[in-house]
Design goal:
The complex is a heterodimer of chains A (277) and B (805).
Chain A: E1 7-9, H1 14-24, E2 28-31, H2 37-42, E3 50-53, E4 63-65, E5 69-73, H3 78-83, H4 85-90, H5 92-98, H6 104-109, H7 112-117, H8 125-131, E6 135-140, E7 143-148, H9 149-152, E8 153-155, E9 158-159, E10 166-173, E11 180-186, E12 196-203, E13 206-212, E14 219-220, H10 222-229, H11 233-243, H12 254-275
Chain B: H1 8-15, H2 27-30, E1 47-53, E2 59-65, H3 67-70, E3 75-79, H4 81-84, E4 91-93, E5 99-101, E6 107-108, E7 114-120, H5 123-132, E8 134-139, H6 146-149, E9 165-166, E10 169-170, E11 176-183, H7 185-194, E12 197-208, E13 217-223, E14 228-233, H8 238-249, E15 256-259, H9 275-287, E16 291-294, H10 297-303, E17 306-318, E18 324-336, E19 363-372, E20 378-380, H11 388-406, H12 410-417, E21 426-427, E22 433-434, H13 439-450, H14 452-467, E23 473-483, E24 495-496, E25 499-500, E26 503-509, E27 515-519, H15 528-540, E28 547-551, H16 568-595, E29 602-604, E30 608-611, E31 614-620, H17 621-630, E32 641-646, E33 655-665, E34 671-681, H18 688-707, E35 739-742, H19 760-777, H20 791-800
Parallel strand pairs in B: 1-16, 14-15, 17-20, 18-19, 27-28, 34-35
Antiparallel strand pairs in B: 1-7, 2-6, 2-8, 3-7, 4-5, 9-10, 11-19, 12-17, 13-14, 13-16, 17-18, 21-22, 23-33, 24-25, 26-27, 26-32, 29-30, 30-31, 33-34
Helix pairs in contact in B: 11-19, 13-14, 15-16, 16-17, 18-19
The chains are: A alpha+beta (277), B alpha+beta (805).
The structure holds flavin-adenine dinucleotide.
Flavin-adenine dinucleotide binds at residues 29-37, 39, 54, 74, 78, 101-102, 106, 110-111, 113-115, 117-118, 123-125, 166-167, 191, 193 of chain A.
Chain lengths: 277, 805
C-alpha cells in the first residue's frame, strides 16, 4: 500500500494555499486529516503531483458559538466536535453524529471540513449538515462565496466546490429551543460507514430529515421533512423511501437497505420527538 | 529464604512450573514495541521485491512488457515466468502434492495471482515500477462455483490435460482434484434406509481467511562468498521450509539457514510456501544482494492461503427416541486454482473424518471431492487442526437439525448420544481412536453454569412477547460440544511431502543451574517461551525463570515440523518432557554418586534428589548441574544435556462445551452476544492464564467468522472483501465478555497428559455462535441458513420467515 510520489506543500494562510492550487491546477489537492484521501492514494485510486496540507492554517481552525449561528473551522477535528462543551449544548446533534463516525483514532485527525468536502456518499457529516441546513463557505481565486449544504452535493465525489477553492468554514443556524434532534446509524462494526443513517430535527412545528449512504449523495427530503413537521411519521418515511436510491454492496442488497433505512429513520424520529418539547 | 526451610509446595511454587499462571516472558519486548519481525530486518544493500498481480480471475497472459518498469532509476530486475523457467522455478510443488505457478505461466487462475516480480532499490520504487509493467491479458470464462466447475467445459488447469490420476487417486473431470472416502458407504446407506428418522441438510462453511496481524514476508540473503543462503521469513514450519527450499532450488540443505523471527500471528496462513519466497530467493541469488518482500494487507487477503470453503451435504439417522444410528456426509471442497491445501499427505481433506464429533455414532461414511475454481489457493487450518473446524461445524449443525426433526431439546439430544467416559479409548466409525474424554461431566457443568433451564424459560417468554408485539428482539441459545483431533502426528500416518510429523526438543543445562531449550516448533504468539519453560521446570526442578527458550533458527534448533494444528504442546511439548526426563535420569546418577548411595536409593523431590528415608540428605538440581560439569564422576560423561525426537503414538482429542446467548434484532439483523461460556478440557493445564488468553483470542476469531468475516467473490471472480473495511476483524467494541471454565481429562498417552488448546475456541466457537442465530429463529421455522451471519443475512432469515409483516 504505497502511494505514488508527490510534492508536499504546507502553506501558512488561505491565500497561499489557493495560490498553490492555482499554480498546479488539477495536479494539486488539499489534504486535511488525510483519513479519506490517504487510503485512496495508497490504493492508487487518487494520484496527484502536489499535496497542499492545511494543518498550518490558523484561519481554518476553531469553533465559534454565537446566539443564532455556530461556526466551525474546516480544520476542526471530529474529536473536537465531540469534546467541545459549548457545541454539545448549542447543537447536540453534531456530537451525537460525530460519535458515530469512524473510530477514536480516525476522529483525532479527521476533520469536519474534509468529511463534508470529500463528497463520499458514505460520509456522515454531509447528511448531518443538510439536516441542520448548514452553509459552506468557500474561498477561491475569485474571492469568497457560500453554498448551502443542501445545494452542495452533485454526485459521488462531485460537489459544487471548484478545484481551486478551499472550504474554509461551516456555519450552522442554532435550532430553536424545543427542537428535538437525533442521529441513528446502523453499521457493521466500529469504524464502518453507514448501512443506513438518519439525521432528524423536529419541534416547534418544523422538521428536517436527511439520510446517509443510501444514494450517491446525501439525501435531504423536503417532502419527508414537511410530512414530519405535520406529525405524519409514516408519510415522512414513505417520502424518504421515495427519495433514496441505495445500491447493493457488501452491506447487503437494495431491499435490505431500504428496510433498514425506514427502521433507522423511525428510530431517529422517535428519539428526536422524545427530546422535543 | 533458606531452601531447607521451605515446604515442597513452596519449592514447587518457586519453580513456576506446570499449573502456574506465570506471566508471558515474550510480552516484555512485545509490549514495548521491541519485537523483531521480518519487516524489522535490515541488511546492507537490501533490495525490495513487489509483485505485479492479475486483475482477472481467469485469463491468458498474452505478453508482459517490462521496458517502462526497467527504465525507472533504481529498478534492478523484473522477473517473469520466462526468467524462472530455465531454473525450473516457474512452478513449485504445493503441500498437497499439486503444483502451483510461481509466476503466471501463460495464464492466470485467480485474481491477485503473481504475474511478475519487480526488484528495486527501495519499496517505493518497486511499487511504482510494478504499476508500469504492462501485461496484456485475454479474458477467459470464470468459474467461481465448485458445482458449476464440475460440470463446465472450461478447463482451468490445462497443464493437467489428460491426467486422470491426481496425487490422491483418480480425477473424474478436468476440474476435479480428488475423491477421498472414509467409513462404510453401504452400511451407512443401509442404516439411513431403515432409520426411524433421517434429517438431511446442506451445511456450508464459507471461505474466509486467517488474516494474521502481520502479513507474510521474507528476506532472502545469498552470500556468494560462502555459498550460504539465509532466509528469514514468516514461517510456521522453518525446518520444513529449509528442506523444501533445498529440494526445489537444488541448494544443499546445509547451505540453507532458515530463520523465523518473531511472528505476528499465523493461524495457518504462514504454513505454506508462497511465490514471494521463491522469487526473493531467486532475486537474491541473481543479484547477490539481500531481497526483502512483504505483502500488503490486500495481497495477503487476496492471494495467500484462505480457509474453509466446504459444502457439506449431510444426512443423519436416528431412532425416534433420538439415538443416532448413522451419519453420511458428502463434501464438495473448493480449493481454488491450485491445490495448496496444507494437510498431512495421506489426508487430502485433513481430519474431516472427525466429523462424528463427540457422539457415539456406530456407522458413518464421508466422501470429499476437491474441485478447482478461479479463486485463490489455500485451504489451510485457520486456527484449527486440519479441517477440524469444518467437521465440528458440520456435526454440530446436523445435531441441531436432527433435534428440530425430532422436536427434541438439542442439549438433551447431545447428552443421550455422547460417547461415555467408560468407552475411552473410543474407536470411531471413521477410523480414529479417541484417547480420553468425559463429555457428560463437562456438558452438565456447562448447562448448570449458564442456568440452561432458566434461559429456555426466558426464551419461551420472549417468543410469547414477540408474538404479542411487545418486542422485536429474539433470544438465541447456541450450544456446542466439540471434539478436536490435534497434535499431528504419528509418523506412521502423518507426513507432509514425506516429512514425518514428529517434533523435537534439545535442552542444555548450564553449570550454574540455568538452561536453554531449543525446539522444532515456532511461536507466533502462543507463548512457547513461557509454557515450555514451565514443563522443563516441573520436570527437572529448575525455575522457569532460569530457562531460555529458542525456536525458529534451523542452524541451532533441532529438526521439527513447526507450529500449527495445535501440535506444539502435544508433540514438541512431549519431546520437551522426554528430553527433560533424560536429563533427570542422568542427574539421578550424579546425585547418587554425590550422596554416596546407589542410584535406586535416591528419590525425586520437586527440585532435588534425596536419599530415600532421609530427606535431609539431598542434592538440588542446581548442585547436580554444577557437579555434572566440574566433577569427575566415574562412568559418566561430563555435561548435562539431552535431545528428544518425539513421535506421538496417537493424536490428542481436546474437547469442550460452549454456550452462547445472543440477542437478535429482527428488523435490522443486528446481534449482541449477551453471554459466552467456554468450558475447555485440554487435559493437563500448563499455564491457565495462557489458556484463557488463547480461548479469548480463538473465540473472538470464531465470532468474526460466524458473524461476518468472509472472502467473497463476484461472478467475475473479483474479490469483494480485500480490505479490512469489508473483511470483518472484530475490535474491542464488537468483542463480548467471555466466561472460561474447564475440566481436566489428561491424555493417557502424552507424557504430561496435555492435549493442546490454541484452536479449541475457534473449533467450538463457530458452531456456538451460528447455533445461537439458528436457535433464535427455530421457533419460527428456520432449519438451516448459511454463515456468515452478518446483518443482512440475519435480516433475510427474518424476512423469509415473514417476520417483517
Ligand atoms: C477506518 C475509517 C473509518 C471511517 N469511518 C467513517 C464513518 O463512519 N463516517 C464518516 O463520515 N467518515 C468515516 N471515515 C472518514 C473520515 O471521517 C475522514 O476523516 C473524512 O472523511 C475526511 O476528513 P479528512 O480531514 O481526513 O480529509 P482528507 O482525507 O484530508 O480529505 C478528504 C477530501 O476532502 C478534500 N478536502 C479536505 N479538506 C478540504 C477543505 N478544507 N477544502 C476543500 N477540500 C478539502 C481533500 O482534498 C480530499 O479530496 C473513516 C475513515 C477511516 C480511515
Amino acid at each position: 500500500m504505497i502511494p505514488a510520489g508527490f510534492e508536499y506543500h504546507r502553506p501558512g494562510d488561505i491565500a497561499s494555499a489557493i495560490g498553490i492550487l492555482q499554480e498546479h491546477g488539477d495536479e494539486a489537492r488539499v489534504i486535511a486529516g488525510g483519513h479519506s484521501l490517504i487510503p485512496m492514494m495508497k490504493l492508487r485510486m487518487a494520484e496527484m503531483g502536489h499535496l497542499v496540507d492545511l494543518q498550518a492554517i490558523e484561519e481554518l481552525k476553531g469553533i465559534e458559538i454565537g446566539a443564532d449561528t455556530v461556526s466551525l473551522g474546516a480544520m476542526v477535528t471530529q474529536h473536537e466536535l465531540i469534546t467541545h462543551d459549548g457545541l454539545a449544548t448549542a447543537i447536540p446533534l453534531i456530537r451525537e453524529a460525530a460519535l458515530q463516525v469512524a473510530d477514536p483514532q480516525v476522529r483525532y485527525v479527521g476533520t469536519v471540513g474534509g468529511n463534508v468536502a470529500n463528497g463520499d456518499p458514505g460520509n456522515d457529516m454531509p447528511g448531518l449538515m443538510q439536516c441542520l441546513n448548514a452553509t459552506f463557505e468557500l474561498s477561491g481565486p475569485d474571492g469568497r462565496r457560500s453554498v448551502a449544504a443542501r445545494e452542495f452535493y452533485e454526485a459521488a465525489y462531485f460537489t459544487a466546490r471548484d478545484d481551486e477553492e478551499i472550504l474554509t468554514r461551516i456555519s450552522i443556524p442554532v435550532p430553536g429551543a424545543g427542537v428535538g434532534q437525533a442521529y441513528e446509524k446502523q453499521k457493521r462494526k466500529i469504524g464502518d460507514y453507514a448501512t443506513a443513517a438518519a439525521a432528524v430535527m423536529v419541534g416547534n412545528g418544523q422538521a428536517s430529515v436527511a439520510m446517509t449512504n443510501l444514494a450517491d449523495t446525501p439525501v435531504w427530503s423536503e417532502s419527508a421533512s414537511n410530512a414530519l413537521a405535520d406529525g405524519d411519521v409514516s408519510g415522512c418515511v414513505a417520502a424518504m423511501l421515495d427519495a433514496i436510491d441505495p445500491v447493493a454492496d457488501n452491506r447487503g442488497p437494495v431491499e435490505f437497505k431500504k428496510h433498514v433505512a425506514a427502521v433507522m429513520l423511525r428510530r431517529a424520529i422517535e428519539r428526536a420527538q422524545s427530546r422535543a418539547d | 529464604m533458606n531452601d531447607q526451610t521451605l515446604t515442597p509446595e513452596e519449592r514447587a511454587a518457586n519453580l513456576k512450573g506446570m499449573g502456574s499462571s506465570r506471566k508471558r516472558v515474550e510480552d516484555v519486548r512485545f509490549t514495548q514495541g521491541k519485537g523483531n519481525y521480518v519487516d524489522d530486518i535490515k541488511l546492507d544493500g537490501m533490495l525490495f521485491g513487489a509483485f505485479v498481480r492479475s486483475p482477472y480471475a481467469h485469463a491468458r497472459v498474452v505478453s508482459v512488457n517490462k521496458e517502462a518498469a526497467l527504465a525507472i532509476p533504481g529498478v534492478v530486475a523484473v522477473l517473469t515466468a520466462e526468467d524462472l523457467a530455465p531454473l525450473g522455478l516457474h512452478w513449485m510443488p504445493t503441500l498437497a502434492g499439486d503444483k502451483q505457478m510461481v509466476l503466471a505461466d501463460g495464464k492466470v487462475l485467480f485474481q491477485g495471482q503473481e504475474v511478475a516480480y519487480v526488484v528495486a532499490e527501495n519499496r517505493y520504487i518497486a511499487a511504482d515500477a510494478a504499476e508500469l509493467v504492462e501485461v496484456d491479458y485475454e479474458e477467459l470464462p470464470v468459474l467461481t462455483d465448485p458445482f458449476e466447475a464440475l460440470k463446465s467445459d472450461v478447463v482451468l488447469r490445462e497443464d493437467l490435460a489428460g491426467q486422470t490420476d491426481g496425487a490422491h487417486g483418480p480425477r473424474k473431470h478436468h476440474n476435479h482434484i480428488f475423491t477421498w472416502e472414509q467409513g462404510d458407504k453401504d452400511a451407512t446407506e443401509a442404516v439411513l434406509g431403515e432409520a426411524d428418522v433421517v434429517a438431511e441438510e446442506m451445511v456450508y462453511y464459507h471461505r474466509t481467511h486467517p488474516c494474521p496481524l502481520e502479513t507474510c514476508g521474507c528476506v532472502a540473503s545469498m552470500d556468494k562468498v560462502t555459498g550460504k543462503l539465509t532466509l528469514y521469513g514468516t514461517f510456521q514450519a522453518p525446518h520444513a521450509i529449509r528442506t523444501v527450499v533445498s529440494l526445489i532450488s537444488g541448494l544443499a540443505e546445509h547451505n540453507i539457514r532458515v530463520i523465523s523471527p518473531d511472528i505476528g500471528g499465523g493461524f495457518g496462513n504462514k504454513v505454506g510456501a508462497y511465490a514471494g519466497y521463491v522469487c526473493s530467493v531467486v532475486a537474491s541469488i541473481v543479484t547477490g544482494q539481500p531481497v526483502k518482500w512483504v505483502e500488503n494487507r490486500m495481497e495477503n487477503l487476496m492471494s495467500t492461503a484462505f480457509a474453509r470453503d466446504y459444502w457439506m451435504q449431510g444426512k443423519i439417522a436416528a431412532t425416534k427416541d433420538g439415538k443416532i444410528t448413522g451419519l453420511w456426509c458428502h463434501t464438495t471442497a473448493d480449493h481454488g486454482g491450485f491445490d495448496a491445501c496444507a494437510d498431512p499427505t495421506k489426508f487430502p481433506a485433513g481430519f474431516m473424518n472427525i466429523c462424528t464429533g463427540s457422539y457415539d455414532i456406530p456407522t458413518a461414511y464421508l466422501a470429499v471431492d476437491g474441485v478447482y475454481t478461479n479463486k485463490a489457493p489455500g485451504g489451510v487450518a485457520y486456527r484449527c487442526s486440519f479441517r477440524v473446524t469444518e467437521a465440528a461445524y458440520f456435526i454440530e449443525r446436523m445435531i441441531e437439525v436432527l433435534a428440530i426433526k425430532l422436536n427434541m431439546d438439542a442439549a438433551e439430544l447431545r447428552r443421550i448420544n455422547f460417547i461415555k467416559a467408560d468407552q475411552f479409548p473410543y474407536q470411531s466409525a471413521l477410523g480414529w481412536e479417541y484417547d480420553s474424554g468425559d463429555y457428560h461431566t463437562a456438558w452438565d457443568k456447562a448447562l448448570k453454569a449458564v442456568g440452561y433451564e432458566g434461559l429456555r424459560a426466558e426464551q419461551a417468554q420472549r417468543i410469547e412477547d414477540f408474538r404479542a408485539g411487545k418486542t422485536r428482539k429474539l433470544l438465541g441459545i447456541g450450544l456446542t460440544h466439540f471434539t478436536e483431533i490435534v497434535g499431528a502426528g504419528p509418523v506412521k500416518n502423518c507426513d507432509i511431502l514425506g516429512l514425518g510429523m514428529f517434533d523435537s526438543c534439545e535442552i542444555r543445562i548450564h553449570p550454574t543451574g540455568s538452561a536453554i531449550a531449543r525446539l522444532g516448533t515456532i511461536s507466533q504468539g502462543q507463548g512457547h517461551a513461557t509454557t515450555f519453560a514451565q514443563i522443563i521446570a516441573s520436570e527437572i526442578g529448575l525455575p522457569a525463570d532460569d530457562i531460555t527458550l529458542e525456536e525458529g533458527d534451523t542452524d541451532t534448533a533441532p529438526y521439527g515440523l513447526g507450529t500449527y494444528g495445535s501440535r506444539s504442546t502435544p508433540v514438541a511439548g512431549a519431546a520437551t518432557a522426554m528430553a527433560a526426563r533424560k536429563i533427570r535420569a542422568k542427574a539421578q546418577m550424579i546425585a547418587a554418586y554425590l550422596l554416596e548411595v546407589h542410584d535406586n536409593d535416591v528419590e525425586w523431590d520437586v527440585d532435588r534428589f534425596a536419599v530415600k528415608g532421609a530427606p535431609e540428605r539431598f542434592k538440588t538440581m542446581k548442585e547436580i548441574a554444577f557437579a555434572a560439569y566440574n566433577q569427575a564422576i566415574p562412568g559418566l560423561e561430563p555435561g548435562l544435556e539431552a535431545v528428544s525426537y518425539y513421535d506421538p503414538p496417537n493424536m490428542t482429542y481436546p474437547f469442550g462445551a460452549y454456550i452462547c446467548v445472543m440477542e437478535i434484532d429482527v428488523d435490522t439483523g443486528e446481534w449482541d452476544v449477551r453471554q459466552f461460556y467456554a468450558l475447555d478440557d485440554c487435559g493437563t493445564r500448563i499455564n491457565p492464564m495462557i489458556i484463557e488468553g488463547q480461548v479469548h483470542g480463538g473465540v473472538t476469531e470464531a465470532l468474526a467468522i460466524a458473524m461476518g468475516q468472509e472472502i467473497a467473490y463476484d461472478e467475475m471472480g473479483n474479490v469483494k472483501t480485500a480490505t479490512l473495511m469489508d473483511f470483518f476483524l472484530p475490535t474491542a467494541w464488537e468483542t463480548p465478555n467471555y466466561t472460561t471454565d474447564h475440566t481436566v481429562t489428561p491424555s493417557p498417552h502424552h507424557p504430561i497428559g496435555a492435549k493442546g488448546v490454541g484452536e479449541s475456541p475457534n473449533v467450538g466457537g463457530v458452531p456456538a455462535f451460528s447455533n445461537a442465530v439458528h436457535d433464535a429463529f427455530r421457533p419460527f421455522g428456520l432449519v438451516q441458513s448459511h454463515m456468515p451471519h452478518d446483518h443482512w443475512r440475519i435480516w433475510k432469515i427474518a424476512n423469509g420467515l415473514g417476520m417483517h409483516g
